[in-house]
Amino acid sequence: FGEVGGLMFLKEVFVEAREAALRPRDFFGRRPEAESWSAPAARLAFWGFVAGLVDSLVVVLGLTDTPDSPLLNVLTTAAFPIFTLFFGVVAAGLLHLAWKLLGGTAPLAATWRAAAAVSFTMPFDIVAGNLGLMSLLPMLFRYWLLGAAGGGAHGLRRGRAWGLVCVLAFVELLSRTLS
């Protein structure tokens, strides 16, 4: 990256997170003319890295039942971006398929951008993970953002976008309850 490039990247990542969080309809409604596949991947990996750091910090501070191990903390921080990218690709593919089946019109690149854009919620998931019902807040916020993305990026009617989001949120809630 270099010093200037790295600072610009960080600025862009935080500006994107702020815009997606505060004005999701505007953010997801913009369709960039051309954005490389690597730019959203870099942002997704960055938020995965931050989530890994936060997870390691939560363990070091003793805020979880997970045993503390310096090696495990380093491996967690290093592995989070890799797993985030892998599962991000899978999630974006499944989300794109669902949006297309519901009448979405955007290309896969728009879904990939949306998946990367909501990844800033991952560190909040880590922090809220041991807070009982409070852990649902980042999850619900992420699905709210995905509802805005379905309407903005793919042009889905509001009922379809929010119907899909409700089904996905219910499935995640059910899986959390049963695990």
How is the topology of this model organized?
Layout: H1 2-22, H2 24-29, H3 38-60, H4 70-101, H5 108-117, H6 122-128, H7 136-152, H8 158-178
Describe the structure.
The protein is mainly alpha-helical and 179 residues long. Helices cover 77% and strands 0% of the residues. It has 8 helices and no strands. The chain has helices at 2-22, 24-29, 38-60, 70-101, 108-117, 122-128, 136-152, 158-178. α3 packs parallel to α6, α4 (70-101) packs across α5 and α6 (122-128) runs antiparallel to α7. The longest helix is centred in the middle third of the chain and has 32 residues, at 70-101. It is globular and about 50 Å long. The model has no long low-confidence stretch (mean pLDDT 89).
Question: What's the short story on this structure?
Answer:
This protein is mostly helical and 179 residues long. It is built from eight helices and no strands. It is globular.
